[in-house]
Amino acid sequence: MPIEIQNLTKIFRKATALDQVSLTLGENRIYGLLGNNGAGKSTLLSIIADRQLPNKGCVLLDGEPVHNNDHALHKLFLVGDQNLFPSDLKVKKAFAAAKLFYPEFDLPYAESLAEKFELKTNKKISSLSTGYASIFRLILGLAVNTPYLFFDEPVLGLDAQHRDLFYRLLMEKYAERPCTIVVSTHLIAEIANLVEHTVMIRRGKVIRDCPTEELMAAAYSVCGPAAQLDHYLTGKAVLSSRILGGLKTACVQGTPEAEPPTGLEFSKLDLQAYFISLMEEENPL
Amino acid sequence: MPIEIQNLTKIFRKATALDQVSLTLGENRIYGLLGNNGAGKSTLLSIIADRQLPNKGCVLLDGEPVHNNDHALHKLFLVGDQNLFPSDLKVKKAFAAAKLFYPEFDLPYAESLAEKFELKTNKKISSLSTGYASIFRLILGLAVNTPYLFFDEPVLGLDAQHRDLFYRLLMEKYAERPCTIVVSTHLIAEIANLVEHTVMIRRGKVIRDCPTEELMAAAYSVCGPAAQLDHYLTGKAVLSSRILGGLKTACVQGTPEAEPPTGLEFSKLDLQAYFISLMEEENPL
Questions:
Q1: What CA–CA distance (Å, rounded) separates B44 from B50?
Q2: CB-based contact A186 B159, cutoff 8 Å
Q3: What pLDDT is recorded for position A282?
Q4: Which intervals hold domain ABC transporter (chains A, B) (predicted)?
């Protein structure tokens, strides 16, 4: 049980950011951590990386508490939105510094990635644009070679070409040197094929925690004329529905019948649509 | 010819941001403006809105130059990344101020949108998170009711639920009160179904400018065993190709044959994949 998150609660002045969160992150698997802004994703990740303390609960890595534990903390790396280096440091110096902290950091690989992304390594970190600041941080993550790797919104501000490059590099890395990767992102559709296990949190609570395939089999989409569809939906667990010009589409929890009633059509849900449906469940428009 | 962009060139100290860009933006249509970071999209939009001056060329709106022309400028609104209000102003005061500048600004609608997005209108603009700063600006755009509307990265930092809400509101608005909308975004897949006309720019030059449907019919994807595919590709205009475990996929400019050769498979390209292919054309990995 490589990472055990036990009963974490974190309270800020007014708000409960995490509410008794327990999770197990297994070895050599890619996790998607999904949640809306303010759901508690970044707080969770920064507690795992011991950058914040919880009010209650603890995080164990290979059985050891991470808090104030250099031995455990050297096994993980969090690519977050904070820059941990002095901001007037140049990119190439930051790569060299990373090598001092993380002996497995692959300096030539980091430099080759900088070239691929056209990140100028003689620039100061503070002078990077939103997109290039993201690129700088995700290169650190791709090159650091710790057994546990956390990415918090790694592609913020990246264009489609650079996002695509990042996803391909991540898969390459994972194939060559398997490790535990947790990606927290709002671009759910783009990582749906990468994540083997999905964790969804809402308002500080875990609402889903299972293999992505299993999750996707737990609901389906059905579409048809509104009156007919409403009849079909009676007694079913409807997560969300929409009407566009007389045609209604609903997302339903459960397994569809072998054949849809005449006039209706079943289809598979995609992960992002399913996520949105779950988020809307208690917040209908 | 509502907006005529004539031969715009913009040079910054070292770089040519726009290189003789000419475009016509027709009435009551939704445009997608696509390009990588640094391609010149934001520069183009801010020149259209007269927030920057070009080195050469001009922008005409309904036949009048926009530069220093209040009459023309009141017909357009740019939702950009800059906040144009004093940053210690509260959101609700900013809405009221927008009404002074743009008489058609729909104040009750803006307030109802703030409620839908859970934007607290008694907050100062400066205190909003990245996501809520985006939400504040896109509400201004949705409520302003000018005949020309430009969105520059409107969904930066928004979670999937809020992005989905924005796209739906935009379509609703467009259906109720047609206008010319230009959306510049890196999340191409998400707007592919909304944009009727696509403009792609690369390194300051327009490389595509045509109806989205026409654009998508101009290329296709083909997949199969590498050796077989390479044989098929001989003499064809290959935009990009990838290998994953012996299976190769290529994006080809042109129209596919009625039937693929045995062992190969044709499929339609999606707009984001096509965009990435075009961007890679001269920058192979």
A1: 10
A2: yes
A3: 61
A4: 3-228
CA–CA gap between residue B239 and residue B273 (Å, rounded) = 11
Distances from the Cα of A230 to the Cα of A130, A241, A256, angstroms: 46, 10, 15
Cα-based angle B173, B34, B110 (whole degrees, multiple of 5): 25
* pLDDT band at residue A87 under the 50/70/90 scheme: confident
The partner residue sitting opposite B164, judged by closest CB among A156, A162, A276, is: A276
Please state the ipTM of this predicted complex: 0.90
Contact B37 A162 (CB under 8 A): yes
pLDDT exceeds 60 at position B19: yes
Residues B185 and B191: beta-carbon distance below 8 Å: yes
Residues of chain B numbered 43-102 and touching chain A (CB < 8 Å): none
Convert the pLDDT of each residue in A12-67 to its tens digit: 988 899 999 999 999 999 999 999 999 999 999 999 999 999 999 999 999 999 99
**Higher-scoring residue by pLDDT: A281, B114:** B114
Rounded to a whole number of angstroms, the distance from the CA of B67 to the nearest CA of chain A is 29
**Domain spans of chain A?**
3-214, 218-280
Pick the CATH number of A3-214 from 3.40.50.11540, 3.40.50.300, 3.40.50.2300, 1.10.10.10: 3.40.50.300
The conformation of residue A13, written as its DSSP 8-state character, comes to S
A271 touches B at CB < 8 Å: no
Output the six-digit token pair for A211.
């293999």
**How distant, in Å, are the alpha carbons of A81, A180, B146, B158, B199 from that of B179?**
37, 48, 8, 24, 18
Q: Which of A118, A186, A188 to mutate: most B Cβ within 10 Å?
A: A186
* Separation between Cα atoms, residue B268 and residue B221, nearest integer Å: 6
The answer to whether the CB atoms of B161 and A190 lie below 8 A apart is: no
CA-CA distance, B198 to B273, in Å (whole number)?
A: 14
Cα distance between residue B255 and residue B218, in whole Å:
6
